[in-house]
Amino acid sequence: MQFFGLNRLGWLGAMFVLVLLAGCEVPPVGDGGNGGGNNGDDICSNGVTTNGFVDSNGICTNGVGDDDGDDFEPPEPGEDGRFRFTLRMEGLDDIEAMRVIVINDNVLYSRENAPFSDNRFSFNAVSEMNPDVFELDIDEGQQVTLIAIEAKGITSDIPVNDIRFPTPFNFEFVGWAGDFDDLPEDGVATLEMDGDKEVTVMFRAMPVIDVVKLDENNSQLTGGCYDIVIDAPPLLAFPTDLSIDGTREGFCRPRFAGQVKTGTTFTLTAEDSNGCDAVSGTCTEQFDRWEGDPSGCGSNRECMFQVDTATTITAIWRDTTQP
Prior knowledge:
Helix content is 4%, strand content 40%. It is mostly beta strands. It folds into 3 domains: 1-74, no CATH class; 79-205, Sandwich (Immunoglobulin-like), CATH 2.60.40; 208-319, Immunoglobulin-like. Strand 1 and strand 2 form a beta hairpin. The longest helix has 14 residues, at 8-21. The chain is elongated and about 85 Å long. The protein starts with a strand and ends with a strand.
């Protein structure tokens, strides 16, 4: 078919020339275009994509361009589709070796079902200084579970003049701050990697418990004995770790000390054990009273108290054979 003496091919060529003459300026390939020159109704489609972005030659398409002439590129989720996760570990006291397990997977975990030993998903962050910072690059959309691991604490019979506590390795969890999404249980934080994230975890030293016993009027004796019952709050650690809960009967050493989790309850029950008659059970060294931080124990043989701060208590006996 011919129109005004032109066949179909010739007619299409003429129409293209008319479009160019009408004012749609096509920049030279490779110069990036003018960006803002086609924000109107003009159509430029010479060797470009059709999604409104800029092709590798920097040529505008479908009236789309940015205002400053720079090539427009769709946003990317960080380097290679990954975001930066930063974990900051802070000790509120002079502590070391704070610990958090970072689990990066498609699902979230609890302390009970977390794959602690699977290094495909699990990263063990143990501080070597205070504060300490760990950085990981994690894929966009991944779920991150942060699980704080507390020290077990310690109790021990030690020499009276041995200053062994506190140590920098008995620490307990305080809290989280930063870009977490949820706190599903104590010591656990969760988040989704939909951007760069930074989370701070805080620990503090466990409070000290120190129990000393003595005979008030006979320096050759050190008092009787006492039973110890320890009831500690749940330990935020690995599910298989055991707390220091338990009972110790007939503790007769001069000193009992340690570091325990805040809120741990002690029950001490004094018993006479020196100069005792095998038949009557009467002892010449008799318990007299408790002194120190716990209030209200006095001369009661049983003394129950909660350790929330450094706690010192002295168990006092008296040798009744002495004036």
